[in-house]
Amino acid sequence: MDVFGGAPRFFAYPRPVVVQSGTDAVLKCQIGGDPRPAVIWERNNEKIDPQGRFRIFEDGNVYNLIISAVTIEDSGQYICKAKNSIGETYAAATLKVEGEAQELEIREENKPRFLIKPLSTRAGRGEDAVFSCKLWGNPRPDVVWEKDGRKLNEIFESTHFSVGFQDGGWFQLKIFKTRAPDGGVYTCKARNEFGEALAGAVLLVDAGPGHEEEGNRNGYTNGHWKAHQGKQRRQLPNRLKDETMSTKVKMFAVTEGKHAKFRCFVTGKPKPEIIWRKDGRLILSGRRYLLYEDREGYFTLKVLYCKQKDNGVYVCAASNTAGQTLSAVHLSVKEPPVRFKQPLIDLEVWERDLAVLECEVPEDSVSITWYLEDRRLQPGAKYGMEEWGTKRRLTIRDIDVDDDGIYLCEMPDGGRSIAEVAVKGTILRKLPRKVDVLEGENAAFCVEVEKEEMDIHWYKDAVELRETHQTILKSFGRTHILVFVNTMPQDSGLVTFLVGRSKTSSQLRVKAARHCPPSCPVSVQINTERANAALLSWVPAQDSRKNPPSGYVLDRQEVGTGSQEWLQCLTTDSATSVEILGDSVPCEADYRFRICSVNKYGKSNTVEFPRAVHLVPVARIQAPLQDALVPEGQDALFSIELSASVIGTWFLNGAQLQEEERYSMRRSRTHQSLRIRGVRDTDNGAEITFIAYSIRDSAALYIQAPLVKFSPMSEMDRNKFVEIGNPIVLYCELSDPAAPVHWYKNGVELQTIEGLHIQSEGTMRRIVIQSAEFSHSGVYCCDAIDDVIRFNVEVEAPPVRFSAVPDGERNKTIEIGYPIVLSCELSDPSAQVHWYKDGSKLHPQTGVDILTEGLARKLIIHSAEFFHSGLYCCKTKGDTISFSVDIKAPPVKFSAIPEELRMRSIEAGCPIVLQCVVSDPEAHVCWYKDEIQLISNSGVEIQTEGNTRRLIVQSAELSNSGVYRCTTKDDTMEFQVEIKAIPVTCSTIFDVERTKSLEAGKHLELECEVADSTVPVCWYKDGVKLSLQNDWDIQSKGTLRRLIIPSAEFLHSGLYSCETCDDTFHFTVDIKAPTLRLAPSPDVVETQSLEATSPTEPTRESSDTALLASWQRDKEHDSKNEPDFEMGDIKKTLVIEPTHPSNSGTYYCATADDVAQLIVNNQVSPPTCLLAPDVEKTESAEVDCQIVQQFEISDPIAKACWFKDGTQIYPKRDADCESQSSSQTVPLQLHDLSGGGKFGCEISADAQFNVDMKGGVPHCTCTIENQLFGDVREAITQLIVFFLALSKQQSIVTMVTRLVR
User: Fold this and answer.
1) Average pLDDT over residues 155-182
2) Which candidate, 729, 785, 779, places its Cα nearest to that of 757?
3) Chain Cα centroid distance, residue 1092
4) Of 890, 872, 880, whose CA–CA distance to 810 is shortest?
5) 311-343 pLDDT tens trace
């Protein structure tokens, strides 16, 4: 007895300990007390069990905690608690483990980590679901699977799931025959001494036929896949029990607009399936109906914002394989004292539309408040609120998915009108507005969209989420799931789901439990005074009134098995003591017990009863021990079968046996065994006894001399098949190398002879026959007295083999009517073969021959038919060769068509006719255009006439161009068809319309007409494409095409073209300077006769004093031999002298806009002078007479050119012109002016003068004077003279240009 007595107290407190990582640490303290206290060690509020690396050693009143091979994880504070019936005390000790950096590295390297995490899956009702993951950890981590935070064995029967491990670090969980309640979040927790790892996955259970509602019945509700660490439900195996309701219908009343909540507590294994019904109709989760299982294990139905239509009977039905039960309640919705004159009406609107809710209050003065569920709405850009009279209106603008919900219009007295607004769009099931979970629970979010394989994204606080071990992202068709596993406070935030332009959001809040579980019981005691029983007692905690427990849970643990598993053994509501009997345990063992308090908010910590108790179930012998005869050196095995699992003791000749190298004792429930390894001769006759309480049984051990045994041999080694001529070798191995053996064949002992040798080498025994013959077949035995081994030997002839046949010969395709010849060769010409077709044996018959020619074997079928197709085999005793024969009809071929007939060029609008001929009139063909099959329709006709196949397109279009194919199964005929557009041509335009000549500044319009009004045209000038310019206009009206230039300029002259794709039309445009008129002289005598010796000067005068035309004879040039060209004012003068027949011809004086003509006819006859009074335009001159012609033009600076008979005679080149003051003189040689003809100078006026040269050398002068433009400061007149001399005499042509100011 402790001299101090009383409550426990410390004589020596534990001291801080510092050790190196990997060494052992010892924490000790000295405690006294009477009665002797029970001492435990704790860390982190958890009791340390003396097992593994932890040992508790008592030395008197010194209590030691020994930790082997400490790690960094062992650092921390340890509590030593001592307690007896008088009181209790405790003290703390600190352990520090050094070498932390290295330890941390080792920890990181060896702690568990997921190489492949479990994948979310989807299973149909009744199907198996499998989760697999690959883990790394050293040592191999312990793995625990949980569902929604609870261990599987707490919610599932053991037959409903299996957990396995495979080499390579693969761990597997398999759920058999899944049901709706099996859906949820499954987590895999892996732990070893260096750390732990966690990963989760989702199981979605699809409802099968007839169970479509179950997908919404027992799972997949947003926010309700949660851990349940804080609750403990009563488990009644294989039966259901309703803990809260009876089958009697209860009454429940609620005010309209308020919530109604029904809870039903049901337990059972397997986990029950719950169905809620209202008035017999199934209830599914929706806007106003929430179905879930809460943290306390209650199956809950919550009806939100009750309406009058919610009146009725609500039934909760629970069922599992063991049975079913139900509870019912009647809901009565009370009307408010003041009602709305017109309530709100439910709406369905499309996303991004406008929604208008309208109601009517009893009086104008009644104010109202709008709510979206529990959130008050304020007017603004999103919500418009209007009041007029008793009408009240809420307008929701730009509707999105999060606007889907329940809207309330509330009056001050509490009266409410309720409407559901359903938003239709891409998202069919939206997120809840908020999800609240406790730290450590799982938070789940589920969204359903209208189509599969849509581009979706999950965000939290605007950051896109990616899948990790603790963040699960999974899509099942149109359903998309997000789960945060084992939530922490930092997981709180705004969760957003985005698909296209649609989104839905939810506020996730992770918080601590608002209610505390009860405190654990105190003053726990165990009384073992009664044999094979333990009385457990406890006292409720002092704060039980504040947090009263609803019950207590007792767990037991079997000590000494190495398992740390605690099993629930008893629950009680309010009792403070319970007795545990030996018959209540499954096997004999030392048992520990612990207890905890529970209420609806969770359970308390557990408190362990102070010591273990030995409990023994009642046992009887089912199978007694048996005597054993064991050869020396081998193991002896003794076993006994009992009716219950108890602990017994083994004895050898009365001496108790302990577990050691030679003796091995095993207990497996009711089976007990003893193994004695390597029995000796001294053990002969030993007594083996087993004793367990009232059970005693014995057996004898007898030792047998060691036997000579053959080593086991395989079946193949004992059954030999040897070809004739090959050696036969039979061998075996004995346990005793000195043991003799005898060989026998068919019972006759064999001896060594020539060709047969019997050999012995150590433990090996062998018989060798050099060359096998058929007579050597038989049964051979090797006899070692204690053992015999037999060999079966069969000598065979060499097998008959077929020679290799090429694949081309073994796989034949033959046309119908042709012979089939199958041929092969054997290694033995005498070997028999049999032919088979599709397994049926063939025999020679009419049309079928089976031939044998030496080594060759042939099967010949004279005329192949379709039924001859199949698999043919030629079989001999040791080999088989197969042939595959396929009989096909003759190929359907097309008759050849010349290539030029297969290349078709057809104008649009004309029919297309493609025709070909096939060899078989019954053959089916298909027509294709550019690889697209054609079928008969209104525009395409496919014809079959005998062997002819025809494709007709009634009216060709440009789109019909391409490659056409007519195909049979064996042949193809191709046609190349090109559709040409109808040529677009321009309408005929007369030549006068195709040549345009006009003055500068005038309006120029070119026009042509095309055949097709839709055809575009392009305009070109001198080969350069024209585009619209500021002053140009290109018009297209009907079939007419125009090019319009409002004001033509000289640069617009040229060749214009109007082009279509098929035709081109040309216009020639000549732009002239404004018209320069030759001034007429009506009074002048236009016909003169000139003498050869006296040239005349006919003069043409104008009535206008400003215009003067005269024919002059320049006397000054008589002595010269060149004609004179004189230009002055507006007069242009041509002087040709002398007149000669060679100077006859037509002369022209031309400006840019007019031409004057002079015809000169020189004759040799004597000169005469004839002046016609009627003014003729023809002049005749005698030879050597001088011809002078004068014209007037309207512009003094205009340029004039002279021509004779169409050939320019002045100016010929730049060198011909000499500028001297106001005149220019150009000499022309007479020989250049050869040949008679007409001379002229033309403008647009009609003046024409004809001069006939009768002889002599004329001298003609043309003078043009201009006095109309007196205001022009400077006028330059250029006169171009063409003169062709017809005579050999020299003449002088002088051009005089006078400047007139």
Assistant:
1) 87
2) 729
3) 112
4) 872
5) 999 999 888 877 888 888 999 988 888 888 889
Q: Are 439 and 512 in contact (CB under 8 A)?
A: yes
DSSP 1010: B
Distance CA 379, CA 550 (A): 49
The rounded mean pLDDT for the chain is: 78
Contact indicator for 1272, 1194 with CB cutoff of 8 Å? no
Question: Under a CB-based contact definition with an 8 Å cutoff, are residues 1182 and 1255 in contact?
Answer: yes
Does position 2 have pLDDT exceeding 60, yes or no?
Answer: no
Cα Rg of the chain (Å, integer): 63
Q: How far apart are CA 291 and CA 220, in angstroms?
A: 10
The amino acid at residue 484 is F
Burial 370-392 (b: 16+ CB within 10 A, else e): bbbeeeebeeeeeeeeeeeebeb
Mean pLDDT of 517-523: 86
Cα 532-537-541 angle, rounded to 5 deg: 160
Q: What pTM does this model have?
A: 0.36
CA dist 223 and 265 (Å) reads 20
For 538-579, give the secondary structure using H, E and C: EECCHHHHCCCCCEEEEEEEEECCCCCCCEEEEEECCCCEEE
In whole angstroms, what is the distance from residue 409 CA to residue 394 CA? 9
HSE of 851 in the Cβ direction (CA atoms, 13 Å)?
Answer: 15
DSSP per-residue codes, 201-264: EEEEEE--TT-TTHHHHSS--TT-----TT------BTS-EESS--SSPEEEEEETTS-EEEEE
1193 forms beta bridges with: 1078
Give Dmax (Cα) for the chain: 193
- Within 10 angstroms of residue 445's Cβ, the number of other Cβ atoms is 22
Q: How confident is the model at residue 972 (pLDDT cuts 50, 70, 90)?
A: very high
Which pair of tokens denotes residue 179? 């049901």
Distance CA 774, CA 1290 (A): 146
Q: Decide if 254 contacts 331 (C-beta within 8 A).
A: yes
Cβ partners under 8 Å of residue 748, min gap 6: none
E strand or H helix at 274 = strand 273-278
Distance CA(1170)–CA(1090), nearest Å, equals 8
Residue type (1 letter), 236: L
199/144 Cα distance (integer angstroms): 11
Residue with token string 């070893």: 192
Tokens of 945: 């006439």
Give the total residue count for the chain: 1301
pLDDT digits (tens, 9 = 90+) for 774-788: 899 999 999 988 889
> 556 vs 1, 64, 680, 823, CA distance in Å?
32, 26, 44, 82
Distance of alpha carbon 198 from alpha carbon 171, whole angstroms: 13
DSSP 695: E
Strand 1033-1037: give its sheet, edge to edge.
1004-1009, 1040-1045, 1033-1037
